[in-house]
Amino acid sequence: MPFSVRRVVSGDNAQGKAVIVSDQVREAFQRPGNGTAVAQLWMTEQTPEPFTGKDTTDRIKGTNPPLTGSHFRILEIPPQSGPDPDMKDPAVRARAHENHKAMGVEVGPLGADKHPGMHRTHSIDYALILDGEIDMLLDDSEVHCKAGDVVIQQGTNHAWVNRSGKPCRIAFILIGAEAPWKKK
After folding, report:
1. By three-state DSSP, how is residue 181 classified?
2. pTM of this structure
């Protein structure tokens, strides 16, 4: 079941006094395919970003932030039903591959990666594990993360796999970056 997050946005009024511009509950939506729920919390389109207080989260398209901007979101990744049950299922791999392409992230050739969730983003990602446990898979290794751990993900090929039996909630701040594999 998707979750909600209270988001409080501050700003300045016409007299230059600090005020609350917005105080609202943001509802997460469920992504198709793997059941991950996402709450989009804020977006900037450039750096530096003017302090307008305007909510631009409705402009978020896919996973990658604008090259000079950022995305702030919280994901809740459900647990798998078993120990990587779908890794070799061609239909699951094809569906995951298409879902990732639809989100605008880089994916390798279908079937080439060790896990169907492997992808690259055009961003530097600051990830804070808020609740639960999760494994981050890389090409030749993986690391187990738990609540309180921080991951700095620099556009590397990776997948998030929840083998814990309980949902895992992660806060992500994605900062737009030039993809090194795209440079000529």
Report:
1. helix
2. 0.83
Amino acid at residue number 20: I
Which residue in 37, 117, 115, 118 sits closest to 78, CA to CA?
37
> How distant, in Å, are the alpha carbons of 66, 111, 142 from that of 23?
25, 45, 38
Length, in residues, of the chain: 184
Largest CA distance in the chain: 61
Per-10-residue mean pLDDT of the chain, 184 residues long, equals 90 92 93 84 84 75 82 93 60 66 62 75 94 94 97 91 94 88 60
Residue 21 lies inside a defined structural domain of this protein: no
Q: Of 16, 18, 21, which Cα lies nearest the Cα of 8?
A: 21
Residues in CB range of 16: below 8 A, 6 or more apart: none
Residue 76 is part of a domain; what is its CATH number? 2.60.120.10
The residue range of the domain holding 104 is 28-182
- Tally of structural domains, the chain: 1
Query: Tokens 């994901």 map to which residue?
Result: 75
